[in-house]
TrEMBL record:
Residues annotated for ATP binding in this entry: 6-13, 32, 125
Family: Belongs to the MnmA/TRMU family.
An annotated Gene Ontology molecular function: ATP binding
Catalytic activity: S-sulfanyl-L-cysteinyl-[protein] + uridine(34) in tRNA + AH2 + ATP = 2-thiouridine(34) in tRNA + L-cysteinyl-[protein] + A + AMP + diphosphate + H(+)
This enzyme's EC code(s): 2.8.1.13
Protein species of origin: Cellulomonas triticagri
Domain tRNA-specific 2-thiouridylase MnmA-like central stretches: 208-273
Subcellular location(s) of the protein: Cytoplasm
Major location (coarse): cytoplasm
One GO biological process term: tRNA wobble position uridine thiolation
Function: Catalyzes the 2-thiolation of uridine at the wobble position (U34) of tRNA, leading to the formation of s(2)U34.
Region described as Interaction with tRNA: 148-150
Name under which the protein is recorded: tRNA-specific 2-thiouridylase MnmA
One Pfam family matching this protein: tRNA_Me_trans_M
Length: 375
């Protein structure tokens, strides 16, 4: 097959491309330039897609003996991933930019361009397993290395685009194996630090990034009864479940920590309360993507709402208008609107059934702490 290998400049994508070459595919490497600032530099292990990363990707392609190109997708990235990030936080929700990047960039803009140029598939260094079931339908599964598994952020791509994706690192048992393989192949990125946090917030200061883009908007921090406890300079800088950085002027009456329960963007208020007020047993999600027929009746599954969070027992069913209704039977706390709700099933609960974007979360009984009930 003709394969377009996305080379980020890191060790994972380099080894994935190398494995695609070893498999006999006709491989071409491409680095996605996502920053409008051509002088952007990487800050240690923070950020990615910098000018240094482009150079590392080129060197990896040279070692592998494959053609190499740089595609400028910065405008598309700014107009989709960054714009969505800002709009979601401004609306009091908590987005996952990695999910949106996979949705709009890697498996939309990049894949569409690859297919238009005659490539059969896109290869990336994601830790996930792509295959087919007994009927030949595309299946997305967790990676062998559960600690590095990225199926959560890939579930949004759906079965059609999954059929055009290759994840050669799905069977790797640890990152140490990848680094050792890179070193053995003579790839200079073998010891390069992993990137983490949000790639376009290279200094790791998400609240500062939001303040720079959205401006200062002072408001109140209140408890569930409306009592003013403190102040903030932008409700967009908070997320449901947050404990640190609340800057409250007084402790709770019982002396226990307070957590963010809700963000009210219209009133510009942040509501805080006790940890147990974050417990949920129901989740509603929109914009569902299914890897199979949408279940009309309740199906047993496991629900994951954070990229590196635990999956808890649940039941789910499709709802009218492309939504998902989820009844949670395991312990789940601090679910924010805007997060991805990914459902897993199969004999070992490692197969992605579908996903949606959280619209509301709360409790069937007791006082409601609805993540979507925001003014």
């Amino acid at each position: 097959m003709r394969v377009l290998a996305a080379l980020s400049g890191g060790v994972d994508s380099a080894v994935a491309a190398a494995r695609a070459v070893d498999a006999g595919h006709d491989v071409v490497g491409v680095h996605m330039a996502l920053s409008r600032d051509r002088a952007q530099l990487r800050s240690g292990s923070r950020g990615c897609c910098s000018i240094e990363d482009a150079g590392d990707a080129r060197r990896a392609a040279d070692v592998l003996g494959i053609p190499y190109y740089v595609w400028d997708l910065s405008e598309r990235f700014e107009d989709t991933v960054v714009a969505d990030f800002l709009a979601e936080y401004e609306a009091g929700r908590t987005p996952n930019p990695c999910v949106r990047c996979n949705e709009h960039i890697k498996f939309d803009a990049l894949l569409d361009k690859a297919l238009a140029l005659g490539f059969d598939a896109v290869c990336t260094g994601h830790y996930a397993a792509a295959g087919t079931d007994d009927a030949g339908a595309p299946v997305l599964r967790r990676a062998a290395d559960r600690a590095k598994d990225q199926s959560y952020v890939l579930a949004v791509m759906g079965p059609t685009r999954l059929s055009r994706a290759m994840f050669p690192l799905g069977d790797v048992v640890s990152k140490d194996v990848v680094r050792a393989e890179a070193a053995a192949r003579g790839l200079s990125v073998s010891a390069k630090p992993d990137s983490y946090d949000i790639c376009f917030v290279a200094d790791g200061d998400t609240r500062g990034f939001l303040r720079d883009r959205l401006g200062s908007r002072p408001g109140e921090v209140v408890d569930a009864d409306g009592t003013v406890l403190g102040a903030h300079d932008g409700a967009y800088g908070f997320t449901v479940g947050q404990r640190k950085g609340l800057q409250l002027g007084r402790p709770a009456p019982d002396g226990r920590p307070r957590y963010v329960l809700a963000i009210e963007p219209v009133n510009n208020r942040v509501v805080v309360g006790a940890a147990e007020d974050l417990d949920v047993d129901r989740v509603e999600a929109t914009d569902a993507v299914w890897f199979g027929d949408p279940p009309q009746d309740w199906v047993d599954c496991r629900l994951q709402v954070r990229a590196h969070g635990a999956a808890v027992p649940a039941q789910a069913r499709a709802t009218a208008g492309g939504g998902v209704e989820i009844a949670v039977s395991g312990p789940l706390r601090g679910v924010a609107a805007g997060q991805s709700a990914v459902l897993y099933g199969g004999p070992d609960d490692a197969t992605v059934l579908g996903q949606g974007t959280v619209a509301r979360a709360g409790r069937t009984a007791a006082r409601n702490t609805d993540a979507g009930a925001r003014a």
